Each structure stands twice: as C-alpha cells, then as structure tokens.
C-alpha cells in the first residue's frame, strides 16, 4: 500500500482494498519503518490527490497522525507545495492546523519559512487565527520570524500577509514580537545574507518595526548590519531613528 501511494497507483490501491477489506484500517494506520509515514502521509507528500481522497473515504479517523518527526499529512503536503491536497485536507472537519513537528513547526510556520503565499493565505483562516499567528517553535520564533529569514523564495508578500492579518485581529505589536533570545523579526532577518534583505527591512520598517529593539545580548539590527559591513542599511536605519 505504501508503494502504491508513493507511485500514485490508484487502481492497484482500490484493488488492494477490495481484496482485503478487513485489513483496511490496519493497513491505513501502518507506518513505514524509517520515517513512520502512513500511506496518507505519502500520498500527501507525493501530490497524489486521488489516493488521498480514496484513503480518507474509507473512514480514516486520525487525519492528524504524526510521523517520526511530528509531521502530519498536512505538513507533508505543505513541504512539497501541493496546494490541491492542502485545500482538500483543510476541508476535513477534524483537521488540526496547529499540530507542530518535533522542531515546533506548525503548518503555518512551515509555509512561511518557504514563503508559500497561497498556502499561508489558506492556513490563516478565521478559526484559530490568533493562536496560529502567535504560535512559537522550539526557539520561540513565530511564522513572521521564519518568513523574514526565508532565502528560498521572495518573502515580501508573505510578510505582508502575516502582518495584515495580525493587524486585522488587533495584533499591531506582532511586527516586533520576540523569540526566546529577545530577537524581533527585523533583527532575525539581519543575520541572514539574503538578496531579499533590503526589501525585508524596508517592509518591516513600513509596518512600524522598531530598529532600536535589542535582544537579550544587547544586539539591535544596527549592530548586526554594521558587523556585516552593510553600509547602505546603517545609513538608512540611522535616518529612520533620528526621524
């Protein structure tokens, strides 16, 4: 069954269920030895929507079952960017969008770290919105921290989506939320050598981020940028502070 879902062999999968109906529940709950992925995890990760639909149609109750690293089928789909499966899973009445991985990554944090704008929009639904936005991983970082550190895709739209949603529910201070080291998203972004850094910094400042905020070690974004010899940023931040 794991191989069928991996390859997307929907007809073979249907045949297996017909031949051994009494073992359906056992097989669906079965996990692979290495990663402890169920067939639903595999279907979600590989983007086989028809396989995922078939598995869930058989009455699988624990749609939020986790693998060895704590990933749910929803997280598995997000990591591969399969929007159609993500939409389908989010339509299920018992889906949990706050289940974290072993690193504390919720589905929203995972999507934000990859700057997957369409997926972030889907996950920021009204239910659990505040808790979802404010959720912190094992280092205390929020989805906004992760978006600001993204180097895979341009994160500007993701950052704006998160901040606009936060503002809509009265979380104006979200732009300066801190992780366990006391670092704001602005300060966190400055540590990463990203081609998107100028736009990230400008966007955060436009949303009211405070460049003077220091972490627990007394570092603010100016310290980080000066250490990295980012003269352009130093000049811009000093001008912002004096104003």
TrEMBL record:
Gene3D superfamilies: Ankyrin repeat-containing domain (1.25.40.20). GO terms for cellular component: nucleus. PROSITE patterns: ANK_REP_REGION (PS50297), ANK_REPEAT (PS50088). SUPFAM superfamilies: Ankyrin repeat. ANK repeats lie at residues 35-60, 69-91. Keywords: ANK repeat, Repeat. The keyword Repeat applies. The keyword Repeat applies. SMART domains: ANK. Signal peptide: none annotated. One of its GO terms (biological process) is regulation of gene expression. It comes from the Eukaryota. It holds the Pfam family Ank_2. This is Ankyrin. It comes from Anaeromyces robustus.
């Amino acid at each position: 069954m794991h191989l069928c879902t991996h390859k997307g062999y929907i007809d073979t999968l249907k045949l297996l269920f017909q031949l051994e109906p009494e073992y359906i529940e056992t097989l669906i709950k079965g996990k692979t030895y290495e990663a402890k992925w169920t067939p639903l995890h595999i279907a979600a990760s590989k983007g086989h929507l028809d396989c995922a639909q078939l598995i869930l149609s058989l009455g699988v109750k624990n749609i939020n079952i986790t693998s060895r690293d704590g990933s749910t089928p929803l997280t598995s789909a997000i990591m591969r960017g399969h929007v159609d499966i993500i939409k389908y899973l989010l339509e299920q009445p018992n889906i949990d969008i706050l289940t974290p991985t072993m690193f504390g990554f919720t589905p929203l944090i995972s999507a934000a770290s990859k700057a997957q704008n369409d997926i972030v929009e889907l996950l920021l639904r009204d239910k659990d919105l505040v808790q979802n936005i404010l959720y912190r991983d094992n280092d205390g970082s929020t989805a906004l921290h992760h978006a600001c550190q993204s180097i895979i895709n341009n994160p500007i739209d993701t950052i704006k989506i998160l901040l606009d949603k936060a503002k809509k529910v009265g979380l104006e201070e979200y732009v300066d939320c801190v992780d366990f080291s006391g670092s704001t998203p602005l300060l966190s972004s400055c540590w990463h050598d990203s081609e998107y850094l100028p736009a990230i910094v400008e966007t955060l400042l436009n949303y009211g981020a405070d460049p003077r905020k220091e972490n627990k070690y007394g570092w603010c974004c100016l310290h980080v940028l000066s250490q990295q010899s980012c003269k352009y940023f130093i000049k811009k931040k000093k001008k912002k502070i004096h104003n």
